[in-house]
């Protein structure tokens, strides 16, 4: 137990000293109408950190991801990635959506290679890397299969491999496993944590599932109903690597009910 506590304390120290890679200062987003989707959001996310974002439907979670990705520009406050204002998409930031959005007429390998087709051309090294990523997400042997031949969970694995093939160090994930059954989601959560650890990626992960949010994250951002505000930040001091057995512990369930009570105060 003492060894575990020491390791956890060391990990927390490393997180605290890591550089800030995403920062919002009073960030806001108002759409025509007007519709205030996000209001006065101030936060920092450090390199290698896993942050879950949770809140009721329509509270601005997806809007915040789109802002960080550069797909839209904030109408208020400031937002920066690697210390520079976000003015558009950038190579260091990749995004994955709830649906896998694969091209039905392309094989698994060709779907994973899509980010490379935007450049001067797909090289042999690109193909070798894509095959390695397919292996990493557990789809070795399915390189020439088409999306229609895959289950929903397998399609999401392809989408995850495609995201990793962008080379992005910041991964934005908008409920990527929300449509999957509980057991498939559980397996993909474990897979995601392994890949995030190996790649040392920074992850901002949107979910409606409190258990999932706690299981994955170093911190959980809790948002209010529209206009979306960051109402609370909950630290998750659980040891890594995470295991399914942790979800049965009093510590895990205390965190879940803490977040549930916080959300309940706004709904």
Describe this structure in words.
By secondary structure, the chain is α/β, with parallel strands linked by helices. Helix content is 36%, strand content 23%.
What's the short version?
This protein has 267 residues and is α/β, with parallel strands linked by helices. It has 8 helices and 10 strands.
Radius of gyration: 19 Å
Number of separate helices: 8
Overall mean pLDDT: 90
The description of the largest β-sheet is: 6 strands, mixed
Secondary structure layout:
Elements: H1 2-17, E1 20-31, E2 35-46, E3 50-54, H2 61-69, E4 76-81, E5 84-85, E6 93-96, H3 108-112, H4 124-136, H5 152-164, E7 170-174, H6 182-199, E8 202-206, H7 210-216, E9 219-223, E10 230-235, H8 250-264
Parallel strand pairs: 3-8, 3-9, 6-7, 7-8
Antiparallel strand pairs: 1-2, 1-4, 4-5, 9-10
Helix pairs in contact: 4-5, 7-8
